[in-house]
């Protein structure tokens, strides 16, 4: 099981970094352009969006001009202060496993966050997402997955400059967790090799709708 205290400590230290890219993506590159290009396919000016694990609002702030409303949720209050001050943006400080509301969203985003939760917590989050997603809406989950097997990291990272602890589930296992939660995911591979520096992991997005019965 993942050590939640290590993960909480890691993210608390990340809030002290003023550059949002470095704080959440750990480096400067153009990954965010691929993220936004993917999300753009599923939003318009009438869309309501839920950005779970929003960090310092990198995605929220870029989507704000394009959508009707966006709710940005993160456990770290300091991250939320970076979100655009706009009547179209609402920020909520919350544990992702506990967050649920009565609203229904066109699009729910989970970008770069599910590597920090055990399977049971992932299922809780997906269950809540299922109840908050409109019947014709989509959930977009993006993170690095293990290529051949699960990859668990628990060591000091020279690249990040900090102790790092996370799980990169095998891509098939990621897909299965969504299916077990009532979704029909499509695996999207749009992130070029230059953005995938590790031999045993690869960035994927999972675009899912509710299963039709």
| DSSP E strands, number | 9
The overall pLDDT average reads 94
Calculate Rg over CA atoms: 16 Å
**Count the helices. How many?**
7
Calculate the terminal CA-CA distance, rounded to whole Å. 34 Å
Fill in the keyword field for this structure:
alpha/beta, two-stranded antiparallel sheet, 29% helix, 31% strand
Task: Tell me what the structure shows.
The protein has 213 residues and is α/β, with parallel strands linked by helices. Helix content is 29%, strand content 31%. It has a 7-stranded mixed beta sheet with strand order 3-2-1-4-5-9-8. Strands 6-7 form a two-stranded antiparallel ribbon. It is globular and about 45 Å long.
Q: What is the topological layout?
A:
Blueprint: H1 4-14, H2 20-25, H3 31-40, E1 48-52, H4 58-63, E2 69-74, H5 77-80, E3 89-93, E4 105-111, H6 119-132, E5 133-146, E6 151-157, E7 162-168, H7 171-180, E8 183-188, E9 201-210
Parallel strand pairs: 1-2, 1-4, 2-3, 4-5
Antiparallel strand pairs: 5-9, 6-7, 8-9
Task: Please outline what is shown here.
By secondary structure, the chain is α/β, with parallel strands linked by helices. It has helices at 4-14, 20-25, 31-40, 58-63, 77-80, 119-132, 171-180; strands at residues 48-52, 69-74, 89-93, 105-111, 133-146, 151-157, 162-168, 183-188, 201-210.
């Amino acid at each position: 099981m993942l050590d939640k205290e290590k993960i909480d400590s890691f993210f608390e230290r990340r809030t002290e970094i003023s550059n949002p890219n470095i704080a959440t993506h750990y480096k400067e590159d153009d990954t965010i352009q691929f993220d936004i290009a993917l999300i753009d396919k599923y939003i318009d000016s009438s869309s309501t969006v839920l950005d779970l694990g929003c960090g310092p609002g990198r995605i929220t702030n870029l989507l704000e001009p394009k959508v009707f409303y966006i709710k940005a949720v993160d456990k770290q209050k300091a991250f939320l202060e970076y979100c655009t001050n706009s009547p179209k943006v609402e920020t909520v400080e919350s544990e992702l496993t506990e967050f649920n509301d009565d609203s229904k969203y066109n699009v729910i985003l989970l970008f770069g966050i599910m590597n920090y939760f055990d399977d049971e917590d992932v299922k809780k989050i997906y269950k809540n997402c299922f109840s908050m997603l409109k019947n014709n809406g989509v959930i977009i989950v993006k993170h690095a997955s293990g290529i051949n097997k699960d990859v668990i990291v628990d060591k000091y990272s020279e690249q990040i400059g900090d102790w790092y602890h996370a799980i990169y589930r095998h891509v098939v296992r990621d897909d299965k967790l969504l299916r077990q939660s009532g979704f029909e995911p499509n695996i999207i591979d749009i992130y070029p090799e230059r953005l995938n520096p590790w031999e045993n992991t690869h960035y994927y997005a999972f675009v899912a709708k509710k299963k039709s019965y």
